[in-house]
Amino acid sequence: MLNASTNKLLTIENFSDFLNSLTCIKNASTIAVAVSSGVDSMSLLHISDKWAKKYKKKLYVISYNHNLRKESLIEVKYVKTISKKLGWEHKTLKWSQPAKKNILENARIARYQAISNFCKRQNINTLLLGHHLDDLIETFCIRILKNSRLDGLCPMTASRKLFNLNLIRPFLQTSKLEMYSYAKLNKIRFFEDPTNKNSNYIRTKIRFLLEKNKNLKYKFSKSVDLFCRLKKYSDNITNKFNLDNIKFEKEGYFLINRINFLKLPEFLNIKILNIIIMNLGNNTYPLRSRTLLRLSKTILEEKLSTISAGGCLLINHKTHIFILREFNHIKDLKLSISQGKKAIWDKKFLITNLSRNYNIYVTSFGKELENKSFLEFYNSKKSIIKKIPFVIKKTLPVIKTLEGLIYIPHLNIYNNKNIKKLVSLEIIDYYNIYN
After folding, report:
1. In whole angstroms, what is the distance from residue 14 CA to residue 27 CA?
2. SS3 letters for the chain?
3. Judging by beta carbons within 10 Å of its beta carbon (0-12, 13-18, 19+), is residue 48 exposed, middle or buried?
4. Exposure string over 402-422, b if 16+ CB within 10 A, otherwise e
5. Strand runs (DSSP E) across 36-130, as ranges?
6. What is the mean pLDDT of each run of 10 residues along the chain (435 residues)?
7. DSSP SS3 for 60
8. What angle do CA 388, 385, 245 make, to 5 degrees?
9. pLDDT for residue 101
10. What does each C-alpha distance from 396 to 42, 362, 416 come to in angstroms?
11. Which end of the chain has the smaller Cβ count within 10 Å, N or C?
């Protein structure tokens, strides 16, 4: 018989202390909870329900049907029934076209993308997940097999941002065995996923190995803890470097002090480049190691050079490194903004239509140059335009109306001064790029 769990996060008091300490939780009225029908997520729903009712928060329960098993429909319906009994809204999302290869990884990506998109539509920015210590150790082992860098060897954290969604994992110090204990103690019904026993998957093979060797599992848990401490230490160093040596210019590009950058060890250089390019290039996942090493070696060279990676261009100068958006990746980007509405251009510029009479349309400067009349307008203003490298200028937003008004905020040029009163442009805060 399993003993009742004594893990500190499996009491409502300590679970509450953890959640209530998070800024994203404090500022939110509605929290999403990802719930399959397994023991971990059903236990999460149980304790989250108690917390939400105690602290007057609203839960939105989300289930994702991977369409890989016939039983999954029954399980999702069960989660919906329990959610309704508890008084919470429930949404089922599904994988309409399951992958045939690399199923687990593709399923994970599809799941997060779908949940993120749904949460965005519901104005929810925080999601609770039921990942536990066993999940963490198994992922750590997979990362070792894939020769991951330092950050990859701390594969999950209690709080992180992905797809513009705050992912909160309260149970990362809680073992699967303790989850079973909690469920038994609280009479929580759950389903076992038979794919968890399918030895065709590398994760399952690792799980079987660890189940047979508890001492190895314990050592891996200590190793994960060590790598996560190292990651936290390296994060602190890179955060300080960011504050002192990196500027995000209002035209939407990064400027790095190359001299101080070269004083850092290579693994920190790679870390900084990866995070900047992930943010600026709107990439969800890290760049490949060989790509980052290629960038790092380019920077070591004294000569001026330009290299493309992750939707960005890196320009190596003697004293500075420029990292900017690659025009070809936004060439056909378009926005239409109705009266009184706002939208984000390339995840960098927040553009607000202040007009009550006009819709505004946003395109890229480089794309507009293909239009003869626009080119003539631009050439007529060249003498008064701020000196900006053309490769940066091409990526800037151009604002127009159907009535023929044109405004380029970053160059401060327009064909009618009234359009300046119709538009507000703000840069998205990339200051703390390491969060």
Report:
1. 20
2. CCCCCCCHHHCHHHHHHHHHCCHHHHCCCEEEEECCCCHHHHHHHHHHHHHHHHCCCEEEEEEEECCCCCHHHHHHHHHHHHHHHHCCEEEEEECCCCCCCCHHHHHHHHHHHHHHHHHHHCCCCEEECCCEHHHHHHHHHHHHHCCCCCHHHCCCCCEEEECCEEEECCECCCCHHHHHHHHHHCCCCCCCCHHHHCCCCHHHHHHHHHHHCHHHHHHHHHHHHHHHHHHHHHHHHHHHHHHHHEEECCCCCEEEEHHHHCCCCHHHHHHHHHHHHHHHCCCCCCCCHHHHHHHHHHHHCCCCEEEEECCEEEEECCCEEEEEECHHHCCCCCEEECCCCEEEECCCEEEEECCCCCCEEEEEHHHHCCCHHHHHHHHHHHHHCCCCCHHHHCCCEEEECCCCCEEECCCCEECCHHHHHCEEEEECCCCCCCC
3. buried
4. eeebbbbbbbebbeeeebeeb
5. 58-65, 89-94, 126-128
6. 45 92 94 95 97 96 85 92 97 79 73 90 96 95 88 90 89 93 95 80 90 92 93 91 93 95 93 92 86 91 88 94 96 94 91 92 95 92 86 95 92 90 83 40
7. strand
8. 30
9. 67
10. 48, 10, 19
11. N
Residue 216 identity (one-letter amino acid): L
Please give the domain boundaries of the chain with CATH numbers for all domains: 8-212 (3.40.50.620), 239-326 (3.30.465.60), 330-427 (no CATH)
Distance CA 369, CA 376 (A): 9
Contact between 360 and 399 under an 8 Å Cβ cutoff? The reply is yes
- Residue range 103-123, pLDDT digits in tens: 667 777 788 888 999 999 999
Q: Are 346 and 333 in contact (CB under 8 A)?
A: yes
pLDDT at 5: 39
Closest CA to 401 of 341, 346, 339: 339
DSSP state of 35: -
Question: Distance between CA 355 and CA 428 in Å, rounded?
Answer: 22
User: What pLDDT score does 286 carry?
Assistant: 84
DSSP state for residue 3 in the 8-state scheme: P
Distance CA 176, CA 173 (A): 10
Half-sphere exposure (CA, 13 Å, Cβ side) for 238? 24
**Per DSSP, what are the bridge partners of residue 89?**
60
